[in-house]
Each structure stands twice: as structure tokens, then as C-alpha cells.
Design brief:
Length: about 80
């Protein structure tokens, strides 16, 4: 996506253009995280960060049992010996 010019108001407010909000999945009233990295301001939606974290966890869990599955298996095994 090409750069889009925006203006910072005297009070420091910056309006994120609709095109960019849509690309980032930011809705009105939505929370964003701001990060200063290498002299650049990065804006990320909380929703996007959560989705990326979930995807990373799921990719690491491939072929592994989840904690809930392990707990259920342990409880079933214990029930057999009661």
C-alpha cells in the first residue's frame, strides 16, 4: 500500500484514514497499540495482535494435545482405578 499523507492536529490528534483503518481491522472506538521502532511510529490493532498470537500458539501445538485434553485423559485414567 502506498504511503498516505495525514495531518497531526495542534492538540496531537491524528486521524487514521479509512483505507488504513480497514486494512488494519480498526473500528471506531477500537484500541490500538503504538510503538516507536527505528524512528517510525507503528500502529497495530489489539485484535490483530491477539489473532497473530493465537495463530503462533496453534502452529506450535500441531500434533500435541492441549492442556484440556491432557486433563480429561488424566481424569478418565484416574476414574478407571476408582
Amino acid at each position: 500500500m502506498p504511503a498516505i499523507q495525514a495531518t497531526v492536529a495542534a492538540n496531537g490528534r491524528l486521524v487514521i484514514p479509512l483505507e488504513l483503518r480497514r486494512a488494519l481491522g480498526i473500528e471506531g472506538g477500537g484500541e490500538v497499540l503504538l510503538e516507536l521502532a527505528e524512528k517510525e511510529l507503528r500502529i497495530t490493532s489489539r485484535r490483530r495482535l491477539a489473532a497473530e498470537a493465537k495463530a503462533r500458539l496453534l502452529s506450535q501445538m500441531k500434533g500435541k494435545k492441549g492442556l484440556v485434553d491432557e486433563l480429561i485423559a488424566e481424569r478418565r485414567e484416574a476414574a478407571k482405578h476408582e
